[in-house]
Here is the input.
Amino acid sequence: MPVEQTYYCRDCGGIMDIKYDYSAPFAKLAAAKPDTSMPGIWKYRELLPVRDPANMVSLGEGDTPLLAVPRVAGHWDLDLNLMIKAEMLNPSGSFKDRPTAVGVSAARENGFEKVVLCSSGNASASAAAYAARAGMECIVFIPAGTDINKVVQAQAYGSRVFCVEGPFSNAFRMAVESAGRYGWANVTSTFMNPFTVEGDKTPAYEFYSQLQGDLPDYILIPISAGPLLVGMYKGFMELMAMGLTERVPALVGVQARACEPIVRAIERGAGEVKSRDGTERTKAGRQSDPQTAYDADGTLTLSIIRRTGGMAVSLDEDEIREATSVVERMSGLYSEPSGAISVGAAAKLFRMGALPAGSRVACMVTGHGFKFSGRNPEQPPLVADLEDLEKVL
Ligand SMILES: *Cc1c(COP(=O)(O)O)cnc(C)c1O
Here is the structure.
């Protein structure tokens, strides 16, 4: 049956999900033994919604290192078996390349020539990169007032960027409406495009393969509305459906204090996430998303966190700054603050007693340090000879 580009359910308006036949032997094989002739996430193509290899757009995304980081744990005195999944090493510098690779490939397979999205950050760079790779046009809507440094990368790849007056939800609506009117594929990184979320599953398969099936107890994930977290949950559930694992790691959502609707919903014991008006300024700009355009997304994420026995936690600006610096100095991974936030959360949760001693904890570090323009460079001391050097050493 041909696949159609569909967003929300035509009957109930709900979020769409894609199903596979997990009993098929090829699917089992796909997760356990990746097709190494394919690049990046496409090793798992039997579990992705693109059929013709000619349509699989790849820049080598995925396959990111999973690194034990004992110096990070040691620095904070954490009795944890701590790991970092280095997602900043994806081709455009963030994990967004996973959902985008699938979204752009599915768009190509389904006959689209242009992609559109609303984003003020990494998703725009990613979509622009994959569109360039595929020879497709990319249109980006950003809320007016967005830090222009966040779209230089998208512009560099040749996408067309437009500012939209008003809050984030206006830019979101522009993407939806222009996609409808002009027949562009909307690859906005929320739950609205069921294909992009399929790309968010792929870290689950990599954990399985990198740890020889022995999955972590907890995975800490920076989230705004949470497609990455929900996608990873689906990936783990698929491994379970294929009989490859009996256990799904507890998934922990991490947000910046300045924008923490999911954390608040967990604290209130609420069944639904309520978007908040306006956005406070945060270094972790990626999470400063009030979710005014897609409340249902946050609510889905909330329910998945609960289902895994997970939790949600937020970090304030000082904690985010410290986490970023510790990740950089103690692991050698250059990270943007919104990506390092998961590692700070491990320290915070351990001190709160929420992560038992000895747990195996993996942190998704989602974005590259090159992305972050808010650093304050330190003026290096001036030295002319060894005597000068002696004085400063
Ligand atoms: C987009 C993004 C997030 C948030 O991920 P969602 O899946 O949209 O919730 C976190 N960190 C970085 C670096 C991002 O670019």
Remarks:
- Strands lie at 66-68, 81-86, 114-118, 137-143, 160-164, 185-186, 218-222, 250-256, 311-315, 360-365.
- Confidence is low (pLDDT under 50) at residues 285-291.
